[in-house]
Amino acid sequence: MSVGVQQPVAQPPLVAPARPRVAVVGGGLAGISAALRLADDGARVTLLESRGRLGGAAFSFTRDGLLADNGQHVFLRCCTEYLRLVARIGAGALVTLQDRLSIPVLAPGGRSARLARGGLPAPLHLAGALARYPFLSPAGRLAAARAMRALRAVDPDDPSADRRSFGDWLAQHGQDARAVQALWELVARPTLNLAAGDASLAQAAFVFQHGLLSDAGAADVGYATVPLGEIHDVAARRALARAGVDVQLRRGVAAIVCDGEGFRIESGGAPSLDVDAVVLAVPHDRAARLLPACAGVDRAALARLGSSPIVNLHVVYDRRVLEHPFAVGVDTPVQWLFDRTRPSGLCAGQYLAVSLSGAEAELDMTVEELRARFLPALAELLPLARGARVERFFVTRSHAATFRAAPGSRSLRPGARTALEGLVLAGAFTDTGWPATMEGAVRSGLAAAREVRAALAARASVGERVAA
Questions:
Q1: Percentage of the chain surpassing pLDDT 70?
Q2: Residue in 306, 287, 283 with CA at minimum distance from that of residue 427
Q3: Would the pTM of this model clear 0.90, i.e. be above it?
């Protein structure tokens, strides 16, 4: 046996694995989008979801044999990434999209109108509908047209616009309380989940510019023709399985720990998971609790984002009372209402879902108080409901349905990247520019996947230089 100079033990090169392992924490639309994109890129993806289903805030449930959605989630033609996701998971046949924008507007006493686009290019495609709109005076319609023209010039990325209230801006541009209630909030309230006076001008400008004022077809309305769970849970799980994503339901995450160049995901009562990168795709309040301090994300800013509620009323009549698939109300506490009879599995009668956005007042009302307020309001709005029998009435409440898109909120929304390379954020609360919508959630997931790819590529590049 010869004795010689001891040589150093060879160390493995510091390169990212050929198939990096990535954990996606959260199975909402943001997490689903990130997981699919990363799997398509060749990563080994594990998706961890604390609940027994996917879909996040857009899900379905069964009540007394009735299939119901927790809320009425619609999309527009401009929601291109959400539509791509629906196609990607093989659910294109489970949604419908209008050929041309047409929204019935109903008021008590049988008064009605229709906000529909014409054949002219934007923004003139709305000129005919606005000129005939009966819920504003001729002077009010002219003032609204001038305000819409002015809104096109607002820069949604301007911090000063974000700090300003949409309601204040409308008042400065000749929009009185009547115009706000009868026109502007028909669009702003359901998309921003706030009254105009409480919402950021920048976010409102983004909504109107992208949805109504830039492209004639952008605001064509789409919605699911089946319970949302068939799309965001069942179809999504099938697509994730096909892509090779390991979906682990009822797997809550207790902590994310930095572990050398990677991360360790700790779950109560389950083995930890070692990964090269993490996409944290949970609501902003939960993200604040899970983010390591060294991630460099301002937890206080996340807390200041706050939340805004949505309340949904579910009403089953013994007969058909609404002639449209959906409608919006004016001069009534009813905001948007949807016919969900066919998706619910109801064989007789009609099932209406009433969606109330920015519903701070309704959130604190009892079921009986809501019933006493809204059933008469529906009877005033829908003449056929006056002689109909209400067979079921129940309420779903989303206390923290969205972040609060108030003045100054843009500065509180973090980007996807954190100070820890390989730990990224996703969720509609991140700074996608979009409000808290399904489209914003999907875009955030795609942005997170891009950041993970960039982080892993940078790590591999450093490792290759060290190894050389």
A1: 95
A2: 283
A3: yes
